[in-house]
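Notes to self after the call with IL:
- keep both proteins in one doc
- input above output, always
- annotate only the second one for now

Protein 1:
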Amino acid sequence: MAPLSNITKVLITGFGAFQDVPNNPSYEVASRLPTSLSDSIHLVVYPSAIPVAYHPVINLIPNLIQTHQPDIVLSIGVAPGRSYFAVEQTAHKNGYNRVPDVENKTFTAAENDAVWGSQPPQLSTSLDLEDVVERWQDLTSNIRFPFEIGGDPKAKAKRITKSMAGSFVDVRLGGNVMQVEDVRWSDNVGTYLCGFIYFTDMVEMGKAGKRNVAFMHVPMLEDEEEITTGVEVTVALVKAIVESWKESAV
């Protein structure tokens, strides 16, 4: 066992059901993660799906971070329209008073000002995501990516193993060719619960120093094979984040 001072603790959360997503793959992936990746990387996975609702998030996340004192926080959400995994760069302070959550509530402008009045309009992670994504691509270079992409919703488009992660691969459906990518950098977390939890994570982690926080969007993984792929990709991301973070601290 590594000395306590050498252990990196990563807090991970996933979301629950919302709208047309009864089984949110973000929590399906998070709940299948191991408790450790090595003697020096320990995962603290919140044991329940986070409600897709503003007030439960703003009440829960600060307590989770204070209780567990993680070195890194990784929140996971789903982007149903995407066929790739992505880590997001920034989150916005405002805009959460527009779309009601699963409790039919919003985070009003008055609440936002009371909680985050001193915060800038957007926050960016302190992690070097460019470096993280390069490492992530290397670590996922031999993963097979099974996805359901367009056309007949019952037709599965099976991805071949790529020679280099992050490159484009042709997927043929009904004579059409679609280009899809596996893992990448993004800056489009949105202003629904994904953006809300990411901003909350960064505010809370920032109170103790750097915003060592990441948010990952997963595609609409549905069957067990796809969820298993999601677990593999997430494990690779955590390793990439920890490696990058440790090297930057040297």
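Protein 2 (the one to annotate):
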Amino acid sequence: MAPPVSSARPRLLVVSPNRSHLALLAKRLGAEGYSIVTASDGRAALGELHRSPIDLVLAELVMEPMSGPELTRAIREQTAFSEVPVMLIASRAEADPAVRAFAAGAEDVILKPFHFEVLVARIERRRTAARQIAALKADMEAMDARAAMKAIELGELKDRMYALEAEKRRVSA
């Protein structure tokens, strides 16, 4: 299933075990026009994904008991959410955060400290890419359906042609 494509307020799931960081991100992103859903860990985040459509997940790389990369893998394994963009926030002190995040299927990694305006720009870029991918997939499905219909029509025409040839042989004999 493709990520939701809506003109309403985009729904972001923000995941962080740090309550003050979670509250700050929720407040600032809410002020930017996003509808914010929060979770304190990966398991709660998966529960939120099941509750209502989410346009993008923004999660900490380091969390317990489920890390950001583990959350990303769990999202990617579920067909219903596999196309939801995931961005992970990592500390510069963490070893190879981008490698672990990208290997798990995250679309982006934001290193702390970051400029909030850059975060918002990157969120919008990921949402735009997700909408474009969803539109391409819908176009491909429509093309596949048209191709299947044409194959059926071709089969029917072929059957009709064989029937006409058989009728022609019968009449000439």
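Annotation: The beta strands are 11-15, 35-39, 56-60, 86-91, 108-112. The two ends are 58 Å apart (CA to CA).
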